[in-house]
Amino acid sequence: MSERAKADSPSTVLPLRERNRLRTRREMLDAALEVFTESGYGSATVESIAARVGASKVTLYSYFPQGREELFRELYEEINTQLVEQAVRIHEVEGEFRSRVRALTEALMEVAQRPLVGRFYSIDDPALDEALDPVRGHASGVFADYITADLAAAQKTKSVSTKASPRVVATLLVGAMRSALRDVADGSVSPTEILDSMDALVANL
């Protein structure tokens, strides 16, 4: 369970001090996302993020000792976790290869459409590499694993005609999803166009 869920869940009884700590931490994460969206990573300084929540730089470092790198890494991993949880739910119910690829694509497009999160999760900025490298690819790896297994199963039942490597196909499909994420996040393509195109793509496998 995420810190936000812990703080908001009525079934989770936490001491007041702990609830306040989680709330402040959440406010700092949200402020980092807002400042990033408005100004970009280069201008998203510890000082500007702390000021957004009315805190000092020292206070922010007490919550995030590694500064803005830790803030953005945690934000990115939160989205990864949400996507992984959705992928697990998709594969907990009966389904076949094509419908599951569409469902995974829909999950990513939902992230892309979120005003602040979509731009952040689709960012390709070398300045962020050091901060995000430890968490980049977590959700994509899970997506690729599920697609690989589903395609391999579909090949065994001959519900698809392709004899291509399931792992290679999965890697290409996830790469297409990530590229589509950027296009939807910047408004150049609609989610419906992406989903229709993905349906057409997998229908020919």
TrEMBL record:
Tell me where in this chain the HTH tetR-type domain is found. Answer: 22-82
Q: Annotated DNA-binding ranges?
A: 45-64
Alphabetical list of InterPro entries matching this protein: Homeodomain-like_sf (IPR009057), HTH-type_TetR-like_transc_reg (IPR050109), HTH_TetR (IPR001647)
Q: Does the keyword Zinc apply?
A: no
List the Gene Ontology MF annotations in alphabetical order. DNA-binding transcription factor activity; transcription cis-regulatory region binding
Q: Tell me which UniProt keywords the record has, alphabetically.
A: DNA-binding, Transcription, Transcription regulation
Q: What is this protein called?
A: DNA-binding transcriptional regulator, AcrR family
